[in-house]
Amino acid sequence: MEPKNFFRLIFLIVTAGFIISFTSTNFPHAPSSTTGLLDCTDSSSSPLCASRNFLFNKQKPQFSKQDPKPKPKNHDHLSDTLNHPLDPLTVMEFNKVRSLLSSDALFSSGAPHAFHSIVLEEPEKNLVRAWEKGNPLPPRKASVIARVGPDTHVLTVDLSSSRVDIVDSPVPVSGYPMMTLEEMNEVTFAPFSSADVNRTIVSRGVNLTDVYCFPLSSGWYGRKEENKRVIKSQCYSSQGTANFYMRPIEGLTILIDLDTKQVIEIVDTGPNIPIPGSANTEYRFKNLGTTDKTRGLNPISIEQPRGPSFVIEDNHLVKWANWEFHLKPDSRAGVVLSQVRVHDPDTQETREVMYQGFVSELFVPYMDPSDAWYFKTYMDAGEYGFGLQAMPLVPLNDCPRNAAYMDGVFTTADGTPFVRENMICIFERYAGDIGWRHSESPISGLPIKEVRPKVTLVVRMAASVGNYDYIIDYEFQTDGLIKTKVGLSGILMVKGTSYQNKNQVNKDKEGNEEELHGTLLAENIIGVIHDHYVTFYLDLDVDGPDNSFLKVNLKRQMTEPGESPRKSYMKAVKNIVKTEKDAQIKLSLYDPSEFHVVNSAKTTRVGNPTGYKIVPRATAASLLDHDDPPQKRGAFTNNQIWVTPYNKTEKWAAGLFTYQSHGDDTLAVWSDRDRDIENTDIVVWYTLGFHHVPCQEDFPIMPTVSSSFDLKPANFFERNPILRAAPNFEHDLPVCEAKYVSA
Length: 743
Description:
Beta-galactosidase, Chain A, domain 5; primary methylamine oxidase activity; metal-binding; mainly beta
């Protein structure tokens, strides 16, 4: 090397080291293109790589340690005790499982292995339903999904006998288990082990110290490279912003072997697409200006002078008003509700409503078929772990002051337990809504004004799956209704473009604009069209497990000539659905129906079978072709409602092994067996869908958009169950003096 160039290189290294060590800022110019400087296989080989790792390691998650919590811990999880057959595994149990597995022949041979899931092996349903508090618990077992070398194994660990049994080894179906947190973290660093990746990034005018690369599940398209476990990675520049998602290095896609973490292939289709700027991408409160003249909101809070009306017994049993249910965190589903029961004010019985309910899968296909986007068809539960992505909730903002919190205890890839604190919150909500009311008009002469406030109980979690945030609410009403609501927020996944204004978009001879596959949100940024589908598993047990699915078709009936001044009216036609295929429901405004789960063996005083009905709200249906590879894997979204007979192994709508699955073990496959569903233990599956065509109001961070569905009593009670609810009285409420400021 010439002396002049040598001294230039030394000067660059010393300057970079000084800046990073003392100011934690980035390189002011692109680094040298010298191959050695770009080879980050060994961070010690290059000061650039070493400094880059210094910046990233400051933010590298430590999964074996507890997350910070803004208030004292709920309790010491080392002392957790077991009180219910469905209580999640404790720290002590996780440690025992880890110890037993470490001495098992499958894992003690020295072959590389990882535990992708360690959860409670739930007892048989009949045992749980028969169990009563005070009785001995059924034997405790752990279900383990592990990979040893290239193979996936399913095992059961009996914690009472210390026996390890292989259930399925190796697993014969397509697909792999959900990724571990360690794998996701390692893949974010894997691209920088390739000099070619580093060279490509630098050639785009981006400093490596500014780059974040993210793991993106690859889907399955039958390609040769997908005979192995692979993942894709795409990168973003964080220069000048914490919102690096708005600064994609467009077109750069890196294929990585998920087992070896080696780069297999690099594709760059966007070398001429500029990196979007950082202007207007900030969303953190402390960094936003205060020039907005909008009239601000005064703080608001619910005060409960007598304390909350709910209790949490034995860590997991929630009791509130007329409801009780078992609540636990889950690494895949997020939140699991079990043995949901409601008190009947007339019979004084506590009656069964639902044995178990949870998020089974989330399917998020993006609508851009180009090389850098076609594979973005994520399964957020089965690939990433919806519960693993749950973030600690923020008091006063995620949840109100009167909330209680519940932690999740999960494991790392080596079986070590860790605590995800503040994962779930439970609180009472009063938003000024009305439970029921009636005021008599003056014509009657009766001075009646009867109104009851609506107070509800909310169970909430929030998961940040990369850029997107999901808020899941289960809201219990005193009238027996359960509202399940999904909120979408967070940051859009955007595409870089050379366009800065709509007037630059190319048009053909007919004046049709070039297909952008989305909306131009800001200069050089396209928000790509996509869908969200959240499929819920609802094992309804209305007054017991033997139920039927009742479809109530609403039909137009024409009157006979001379029968009435009316020509038509609407009538309800009720039919019990016999088998699964007839319970595959596509919702339609022009074929309206109600969907009930009924217990024919138990009737009301006047003879109606007791039941609950599924009440859809705003939703969306997939427009993808059924033979499209992502839709084959996401075939559980072909219908909005499915009903299947209860089967302990059928819980995950995309299959137990979702990652790179072929769609051969999904809810759609199970339902096509057309099994009997009349007067037996049945499960209802409901898919809540969103079409998202981004708009500028979604930039740089999205206001929450929500939709929901209800589980509503339908002839379950003899009459209005909140008839005797008390109104609010002034003497029961705290008196707070507001400080008014004149306009």
